[in-house]
Amino acid sequence: MLKTALIGCGRISPLHLVSIKMLKEAELIAVCDIKEDRALSTALQYNCKHYLDYKDMLLKERPEVVHICTPHYLHHEMAVFAAKLGIHVITEKPMAIKYEDAVDMVNCCKENNVSLSIMFQNRFNKAVRFIRNEITKGSLGKPLAARVIVTWSRSDDYYGKSDWKGTWEKEGGGVVIDQAIHSLDLVRYITDKKPLSVQANIFNRKHKKFDIEDISEGIVEFEDNFTLSFYTMNYFTCDLPIDITIHCEKGIAKIIGDEGVIDYIDGRKTSILLQEEDKIDYGGNVKKYWGYCHYTEIESIYQSLQKNNSNDPKKFNDLVEVSGEDGLITQQIINAIYESGINSKKVELPLGY
Ligand SMILES: NC(=O)c1ccc[n+]([C@@H]2O[C@H](COP(=O)([O-])OP(=O)(O)OC[C@H]3O[C@@H](n4cnc5c(N)ncnc54)[C@H](O)[C@@H]3O)[C@@H](O)[C@H]2O)c1
Predict the structure, then answer these.
(1) Ligand 1 in contact with 32 (CB < 6 A)?
(2) Residue 134 C-alpha to ligand 1 middle, in angstroms?
(3) Which residues form the Gfo/Idh/MocA-like oxidoreductase N-terminal domain (predicted)?
């Protein structure tokens, strides 16, 4: 069993904690939060130690794995501190606010021979896996263009209740870095194309008490003339299912929320529906997010780490499914959207810094 610890006992943490509890490969030894009531109640619920200072926890407990579930601006410093102690890192998205900090995380984990995994749990959704597989096999022909539509609801009240969301300094942006990041990541994951440039607009239309963007539209141009056009906003009145459409030479693949459909030009149609048995039960009190696969990604990380412990200990980063290096490509797209939107110019990739 790998000894594990978690930093940040907020809203997303139960998905990690329940997953760790369900895994035979992991043992939770400690949790940390600067808010004592959260740290203490989480420790009582999961029967482990609690800390108020993450450095103190990592130095005293020396876990083999740490889960970072804190505000965006802390992911970089926490990942680097853990890596230097030889601790494998699993961080919630986004990797970091700045691209250069994300690069530093990757380099530091490599230098210290620990793995860095990014939580992009939607990559493990059944519809996503199926459509990616069909595109990789070539049954849909060449991908030509994709379209992403995100119309979600994040109220003033939602931002107002948080001591870090809604600020450039701590959240690093709004709808793009926090909500649309999953869908933008999925298009490049499914098509496996290299992004070349970004042109985007960002605006704040409705959240006047906060200065982050709440709408963005734009285009990401990839190799092979493949393009991704996106429209993402978070001032709708409810969270509509995410719409990702990929037009390929031999048909159209569509992901709507957790389900998928492929319409082939020759008239065939395949639907990828979410069945009861696909759903992971995190317990009644755990908030539901888009995608249900935190457990699946976390399980795959622990299994990779265990396998690697007994084989070749030099390749930790290559083994995990959503590695830091892989996450860097999506991080570039996110940062390029902001750079393009703020400076009203086309941004070429890879980003220089
Ligand atoms: N993968 C997903 O679908 C998904 C969904 C929601 C949130 N998230 C991500 O999870 C992360 C956390 O989001 P959240 O909604 O749980 O936020 P949250 O504000 O509910 O929780 C963050 C917690 O971190 C604690 N914290 C802050 N500074 C700390 C420090 N220095 N040391 C220890 N603890 C500290 C806070 O007290 C809080 O309890 C973010 O990166 C967010 O983007 C991912």
Answers:
(1) yes
(2) 35
(3) 3-118
